[in-house]
Design brief:
mainly beta, 4 helices, 10% helix
Length: 373
Amino acid sequence: MATKLDPTDPQYKPPRHNTYEAWQEEQNIPQITGFFIEDINTVEVSHWDLKGVPCAFVNLEGTGGTNDAYVCEIPPGAHTEPQKHMYEEMVYVTKGEGATTVWQEGGPKHTFEWGAGSLFAIPLNARYQHFNGSGQNAVRYYAVTNCCFVMNLFHNVDYIFNSDYSFNDRFDPQNEDYFSGDGELLGRFFLSTNFVPDLLTLALADYSERGKGSTNMKFDLARNTMGAHTSEFPTGTYKKAHRHGPGANVIILSGQGYSTLWKGDEEPTRVDWKPGSVIVPPDQWFHQHFNSGATSARYLALRWNNWRYKFMNSSRDDSTYTSVKEGGGQIEFEDEDPAIHADFESALSTAGAVCEMGDYHPFCTCKPSVAAE
């Protein structure tokens, strides 16, 4: 039997308290761990008193304590409990349709409708409630929050859920167009908005720095410190390997393919993805996304650091698209292991697809299809 050390003993190490983990254990809902979810729409959920509907926590290894997530299911004709909280939350709807009402205490209520593919953010400490608009089909959404960070920062649960401060600079209750879906586009792909009706049809801008045919859009949602971006790349292509800090929840919106993740000189881990899959690359692990399916692949990344409001600096802003040879975090195609491209061509052959990299990749011997040209 182990002997307890006396607190006055120089070797004694006091236990450390994690307020978020303690609160999470008290919620009695499933917890999903690891660094990959095969399909958001099939994970186990159970009733969560806080929300009033079935949910599951998502604490993947790659978040590094910067953010967390949960999966929520709203049964047909049901709704969540009204609530507010002192942490930010971004919501991506994976299936179903419904509406959300948002308001400040004593102010007018704002209601907007959403469906599968919608993205929006809950303004900080505003009151809100989600409603399933169907009497037959369930709703599912994936939400990324910084609850873990904020709760451990203040280590006071009562403050997190019961503060009455209204952040009118983030959510003006008199602005009737707040959730209209309109936005302000700055530069080629910096969009300030509070609601994206459909990420699957949203027009994206060129981002060929990351790979052939790559497109992108970056979001400033509800003036959060957390950020988001969506990216698409054509069939028969793949992205350059890169690394960055923790907390990027990558949700596959369309297409099929795979990603590889590795740390230092370790053997890469491969995960095969489809719509509904989630990947969270761990802090400073290289990772690379491959579209080995028959259609374009689009994904959404919900993460730390809004492009408008800086919060934490784990690396330079340009490090993810600057070559490692120049001190950045991206591996150029000419510097990657030739076996990577050979494996990609093999995966395409298995799927009956054609490599479209052509002259864009130094190790490619394939000629792009007529359609791609």
